[in-house]
## 1
Amino acid sequence: MNAPMDVDVSYYIVLSTVIFFIGVGGVILRRNPLIMLMAIELMFNAANLALIAFARVWINNAGQIFAFLVITVAASEAAIGLAIVVVVFRRAKNVDVDEVAGLRG
Amino acid sequence: MSNDALVLLALWLLPLASAILIFAFGPMLRRSAGVIGSGAVLVPFALTWVLAASALGTGGLKVHLFDWIAGFSFGLWLDPLSLLWTLIITGVGGLIHVYAIGYMWSDRAIARFFAYMNFFVFAMLTLVLSDNFVGLLVGWGLVGLASYFLIGFWFFKPSAVAAAMKAFVINVVGDAGLMFAVFVLFAATGSTAYADVFAKAATLAPATVLLACIAIFIGCAAKSAQIPLHTWLPDAMEGPTPVSALIHAATMVTAGVYLVARCAPLWDVSPEARALVGTIGALTALVGAILGIAQWDIKRILAYSTMSQIGYMIMGVGVGAYQAGILHFFTHAFFKAQLFLAAGIVIHALHDEQDLRKMGGLGKKMPLAFWAMTIGTLAIIGFPPFSGFFSKDAVIYGALERGYPLLSLIGVVTAGITAYYMCRMLFVTFLGNNRGNVPDVDLGIPAREHSEPHFGESAPAWVMGAPVAILMVPSVVAGWVVFGGRWNALFASDFAPKPESALATVLPEWLVGVVVLAFVAWGVAAAYHRYGSFDATVSAVERLRAESQRMAQPLVRAFYFDDALEALFVRPARAVGSAFMRVVDPHVIDGVVRDVVWLAGWIGREVRALQTGLVRGYALVLALGAAAFLAYFALIGASR
């Protein structure tokens, strides 16, 4: 039987998918690293939403625990990412990721 | 364990303990190492006599050491055969150790010398006391190693190092043969113990026995300097003289005789193996004697005579006259050790001069060496009643008796040649006038390097004299053990009693003895005619120079055995080696490595374009990859 839920799980999944692809689009299309970091956050949170929705469906707390893990990872990622952005800005005096291509082979 | 077992263990391990002790504390012990080393051999000699009674009892004295896996049980076995060898190893070996104290007196490395010598005695005892083939093989390898150490003892001489390597390599050929024999016997009988193998010997397929015998004999030929594996023995004379006396005359080179005698049950059932071994032995006796004629180095003459006499022994045990072959080993150990030690006294006194042509007239200066050499020569040429007479006659008559008249004839001829070259050595060394001050060129000696003479203080003369004097007694009387038939009875338990019907009495034994003596007399007379009557120094010098220059090439080149081995094995091996160096190594081994390096570089160059450094590009690829992954599982993976 289905979990006791007022809203069908498919709505959550659709919403999660939409948010995720907004994030993907943001990372691929935008050239400002700050915006890109925010887009990554969007993807994390889309994943969180899906995890929690499925946790609810299957009555399994593992999904919620994963969500907490993802939040932790997202926090560290933001901290490191912002630090990198600051360092890059200091050296290159601009914040266009396409200009920062020192690793080209 | 019984008391006898403990005594046997003690006499076996004492030389090893002494070797380790001397090796560890050598610089502190110096010359006292000689006393310790000699004691560690003479005490086992005394202990062996203690065990004689139980060794001669039924089945001999057996000591079980430990079991490994099924079929591999290790132990010691003292029976009449190994008892005899143990007595010679420790008795003659002990005397040679005492002699070596004097001979090596002024050598810096005297302690190392005695450590090696004791190690050799331990290895040789392992060889003869083992009650199984694996223990034998261990001893067999260790004596080869000890021989290598001692031939190359003076490692600053390039010739000594080369001789040591040659001896070791040829011995390893023999080791491989012997090891193969052990594999064959183990596969056929499921055991490596002598008792088990010999119990089943009669039931084995003749081809198996023949194969095992041939493989065993390859080992014997290498160790005992039988043709064509004999070429290392003359070169081995580079070692110090006591080494030549102990290892390359009295004991180690007779290991092949021991092994054939030990494996008598195998040879008893394989007539082909008998004929083969007897023939090789006889040929070796003949070739060794002929080559002995052409040598000028006193030790090389003795080396070829050793080879020749071992040929007699191998012929004796090969044709099945085991008691005769062993008797010849027994007497030979005494008189050959004595000959070497007497030669050592001469060499020592002349400061490492070994060339006969530079000697002459030494009889008055060195009476002990002269008499020792004379008695040893009389013994080796088989002059009655010296010891060699009985043993050589026994071998020659034994071959005739067992239906090998041709081998017997070779033995008779060889006896004559032996008399000739031994007397030649004796006369040229000790008779006439001294030629020490005659220049090399006048004597026909080719240009040679003079080794640095090491003049040092000398030991008291009795240290070297006493062992030689003691050895004279058995050199004369050792052959008398045949009287009363006790010698043959001694080994009755080892060798199946010969079926009397198989023995053909072609000629009475006394007649064979007379024929041999006639040949010997001819040899002595010829030698005396050519060398015994050197009257004045001048004529002696001219005759020696003429002989040096006219020596037949095949004799000088030792019948081209060395050249043949060089052409057949050394050069092909070197060619294979250099082919590997020129083709395989640079193009295959190194080539693979180089190709791998080039491949990694090529891949790097080709795929570097993918690294654009554009983060958004990477993100796109990542997203597309994830999409492809999802698509796969959604469309294809799900349908499975």
Note: DSSP finds 25 helices and two strands in chain B.
## 2
Amino acid sequence: MMKAILPALALALASTAPSLAQTYAVTNGRVVTNTDQGVIADGTVLVRDGSIVAVGTDVTIPDGTEVIDADGGWITPGLFAPFTQIGLIEVALEGSTTDAGANDSPYSVALDVTDGYNPAGTHIASTRMGGVTRAAIYPSTGHNIFAGQGGLVNTSGSANSVFESGSFVYADLSQSGASTAGGSRPAAWAYLDAAFNDARGYPGRFSADHEGDALNRFDAQALLPVVRGRVPLVLNIDRAADLRRAIRFQAENAPVQIMIEGGAEAWLVADELAAAGIPVLLDPLRNLPASFDEIAATLDGAQRLHAAGVTVAYTTLTSDGYYNARLITQHAGNAVANGVAWDQAFRSITLTPAEIYGMGDRYGALATGYAGDVVVWDGDPLEVMSSPTAVLIDGEITEMDSRQTRLLNRYINITDETPFAYRR
Amino acid sequence: MTRKAWMPALAATAVLSLAACSSGTDSDGSGSASSDTDVVRHSLDPFPSTYAARESGTTLIRGGTVLDGIGGEIENGDVLIENGRISAVGTGLEAPEGATVIDATGRYVTPGVVDIHSHLGAYPSPSVSAHSDGNEATQPVTAEVWVEHSVWPQDPGFEAALAGGVTTLHILPGSANLFGGRGVTLRNVSARTVQEMKFPDAPYTLKMACGENPSRVYGNRGQSPATDMGNMAGYRAAWIRASDYRDSWHEYWEAAENGEDATAPTRDLELETLMGVLDGEILIQMHCYRADQMAQVMDLSEEFGYQVTTFHHAVEAYKIPDLLAENGACAAVWADWGGFKMEAYDAIRENLALTHANGACAMIHSDSDMGIQRLNQEVAKALGDGRRAGLEISDGEAWAWLSSNPAQALGIADQTGSLQAGLRADVVLWSGNPYSTYTRADQVWIDGALSFDRRDEDQQPVRDFMLGQPGEGEQ
């Protein structure tokens, strides 16, 4: 009756496939390029040796190329989830399966979250099958306003999934950060100032003592690239007043680069954020006054920030970021429903996150020279009823198979005589 | 073994004739007993609904695609609202004299959304410590608490849900306890008191919880239950006490009605609620994730002679659709939440569609102040995933997952949840196909009264909390 969804041989085939030199042509679909080429109504994307080599309507397909027929669907760059914890958490309530935060560590800024990334985590496959090929991962804050360093990963599940470490430092300057720092916002900002002084004084001020005013020697060293403006400082902030304080902090600490994660009230200070060149990682669905930091949260926030010229990438904060990061398409689609142009919304989950992390010339677009991260969809990717039918990462076709699809296949035919545990 | 699937929508008022405090036994101060007979009966409805529908006009919504909530889809369909009720659904309806006629061409008309699992008001926004009113986590059996006593009618989440087309919602206590307390079904209207929101004559419900939550909460305190087996023992001990309590009241009533000299049992609020379940007046809404746990609970209900109306969350419902159907128990589920604890680890995105397709009663639920704002999209995701798995489910059939099925499981399907003549005119006019991400509710009627209009700020409620705040009036 109902057929199993996945070919049983997919795994075996993939494992014998050559890792390089395979050429794929993704054809017969509406190509969203995120470049000056715009949307190509019926185009082809040619991928060779891991990268895109041609995009257009009259692409010559060489002999020996494997053709992936989009069947009239959509062909897009892989999605880039700009702020997630995929691969860090398997089961959130089981501490033994999580590497997101380190409450009892003596270190803070020095913690490199990519050391905890598990490419074999079961949520990686389901995230990839949702079209997400790249993600920034971040550490959770614990005993210190500094959570540590975030990094960038792909969702291939391969051993070399981490493609950049030390991409940003994450710190909490919201109400919860104030609480961590001792009970007030002044305490949190004083701590941040002291930490910056420690980093600026590294290594000299640590010649006699391992401890600085705020940071130890190891953490101060790790903060140095932030102080020098080479690595952005991502601050978790929602309240408008705190955002203004962050803008002032950036101005007083040039060349530091601030980014905002949260930003529930960012639309109230949109012009100042735009002028300061501070990007916002925003969940466009947040609209409830869930705390006194986010009283002005609104579904119109995304549209207002874009209109003011703020660089905005979309997160899935309200849907979680490790299990359902793939829902960024739904979040982006709702931004469109609330006034954001489709192209703008789609960029906010592809090219814009890549640009924010300094990778905009390699990820987030379909153009010659970009990584072969290509997703084929059965419809508009921002529609909740659409789904990918094929996902390429670094020019390799990936398996559309996860623990969830295995469970589905086991239970889809409830009247099968084979005992459940023997169905594989 | 076939059980009756649904409790009748019990008109609570019909069993409320109350009475007497013959010998001062009604000493608990409920104030609800009266003395027109000699038989003590405590009020089943001491906090009665004072809901009063707003003025309904006569409205003809013409030329839309109508999903009627019970499987039907009518192209170019009309819905006529008169006196707060649906008066006709069809094509080519005539506008009565004085009717407001709304052109729904290119748009969709559906019954209002019914969310069977919400904590709005009990865990309101902002979620500050003073607002944590959903779990009486002080002992594992608290059947005596009623969540309506925790609901803050000024929760801004109510109006956000209204903008998503939610016209009826069922508020539950949390799942810390084996017996969490009574739930309450509300009309999604702005009000000063919760009584003004209470759905008239909706049956009471009782929240129970399986699995990790009760055993974690109490196990961490070195108390029982600390395990799944402790959970089951806790339920059984409570049902034994409830059965005895029920027997004592039934014996007392029989004797008293026969004119014998009988003393009423001492009133116990906890056992009174459990007795209501055993008497079929209160519907069980039970938080359970795993298939094996649900199977245990269905045996438990058989042991004590009650019915589990709905399993909530039920992420493994797809593993036991046959058992659910046989027991007449429904599954209220998410589209794609899971993985956050071990008992949610086997969540699959096809759960709703597959459970439904394999013959059990299934529906969507939110359990979230965010999810409740877009239950149409949650159903769309479940429908899309189901179709990709090869299941044939129509658009009209799937709308039952957020309207008539939850209404049925709340015992109010004869009042709301579908577009049928005679039912309450709880209607949503969507800007397009409600299974599209880009569609939003344009207008929402509750009992025929226009209660939300996306294009008219005067028809957008703003709770007290938001007045004078920077986000006042923002959606």
Note: Chain A touches chain B through 50 residues (CB under 8 Å).
